[in-house]
Amino acid sequence: MTGRLPFDPEKTAAARRRQSDEPLSVSALASRIDSALKRGIGGTVRVVGEVSGFRERTHWYFDLKDESAVINVVMFASRAARARVRPENGQELVVAGTIEFYAPGGKVSLIASSIELRGAGELELRFRALCEELRGLGWFAPERKRPLPKFPRRVAVVTSRTGAALQDVIDTMNRRMPAIELVLVDVRVQGPAAVPEIADAIRALGAHHEQLKLDAILLTRGGGSMEDLWAFNERIVAEAIVACPIPVVAAVGHETDTTIAELVADERCATPTQAAMKLSPDRAELKRQLDSIKRRLGSDIERRLSTERRFVQSIASRPCLASGVGLIAPRRDQCRRLNERLRATTER
């Protein structure tokens, strides 16, 4: 008897048992694991944990752990270059990224797209809220800000005595204009205690700027995380800057960092060096300008003298001025004749 069977032999229970009994290749299993992870988790996840085993080998590699588990984290160099936080062992971070199974190494990793210190999200919200409030008060408005002095005599530097920012300012000022006197006000630049110290220093300098003969204030510190720089985002520091009677230049953190102190300052600079350059004229450039002015004045004076010399020579060449005696002699003879006639007339 020939013909088609009334069932598909490949779909019988026995056939399914034979298929399930066939071993998977390692690659096939890895593919299933990867697919299961992507289906089960999918999209971006945010994970909080403690950093351990951080190492930089072009890309960033570290473990994120809690008391019960560990996950491997990889952040590629392109993302790491834009990260606001550099991981350090022991830090508690919030890492956002996608889960991937790396088949050649047999490892599940979190491929990080961004990292931030735990609590930085709350700080960001506070930062934005205060920015909106102060913008509404006009504290960020360009027309409120005061011009910087062109030739300051004395500048107060509000920063930490031990920070690298201070040395950058000193070196730049000495190179460009050593005649400017710097007055250091040593304050904390990180942590809760830094906030009142910074605000009090700015208020005191503003109140006594005439006695101290201050022309400007430079507020600065080096880079750091948002938490490190938070003292410069507090309202009382912003109030002290806005109320200060002399111009304030702020350079806080790196070029990518922005603090409220910088936004309300009369001038914001990316680095301490740039801030020092804003407040100090370049003596070498001034000398070049003076030399140029001297040359132009010398040329103008020589040109004017030459013109006046030709004018005098032109007048001197006229007959009436060439010989004064020749001009007076005929008049003298005429006067003598008139005198003789007058005498003769009176004698008659």
Short description:
The chain has 348 residues and is an alpha/beta fold. The chain has helices spanning 13-21, 26-40, 77-80, 120-136, 164-176, 194-207, 209-212, 235-243, 260-264, 272-279, 283-316, 319-322, 324-347, and strands at 45-57, 59-65, 70-75, 92-102, 107-117, 154-159, 181-186, 216-221, 248-252, 267-268. Helices cover 46% and strands 21% of the residues.
Describe the secondary structure blueprint for this structure.
Layout: H1 13-21, H2 26-40, E1 45-57, E2 59-65, E3 70-75, H3 77-80, E4 92-102, E5 107-117, H4 120-136, E6 154-159, H5 164-176, E7 181-186, H6 194-207, H7 209-212, E8 216-221, H8 235-243, E9 248-252, H9 260-264, E10 267-268, H10 272-279, H11 283-316, H12 319-322, H13 324-347
Parallel strand pairs: 3-5, 6-7, 6-8, 8-9, 9-10
Antiparallel strand pairs: 1-2, 1-4, 2-3, 4-5
Helix pairs in contact: 5-10, 6-8
